[in-house]
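On clarity, I found the account of how folds are encoded harder to follow than it need be. An entry of this sort, consisting of the sequence and the corresponding backbone structure tokens, reads as follows:
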Amino acid sequence: MKTTDKNSLSKRLENVLERNVDAQKGYEKASENTESKSLRSFFLKKSNDRKKFNQELKSDLHAAFGELENDGSLKGSLHRTWMDVKNLLSANNDEAMLEECIRGDKAAIEEYSEILEDDDLPVKLSATIRNQMLQLRTDLNQVSKLEDLEN
């Protein structure tokens, strides 16, 4: 793989990691904003799942490309602030939080799909991305069902 291709792929994968850090923090924020004990537990589990995703990705990225530092994005931080504002203004906080989770998971699945199309993706990273995308799809179905229950 050419150095420019490797740098481009590395940057795209760092963006995936950044989004996962944002998702982890977003699920944690959703757990703080819900009144439902069962949803709080669900959101905390999803936050912990994303934390595991982050650890896997960091390890695989480090092995393939060297050291990375990632603490989330400004966009993710702004999104979590928006979740707080939406929580204050929404008549149904739980539904609002579920909608944000659905939106985030759909975006993550799309990003994972695009990364998997790259022929230069190292095999270990490809397997990790595939497994995580499968879990994201399962989570999206579960969150969608929870949202249907809230309506």
User: Anything to note?
Assistant: The two ends are 50 Å apart (CA to CA). The first helix runs from residue 3 to 33. The chain has one domain: 3-150.
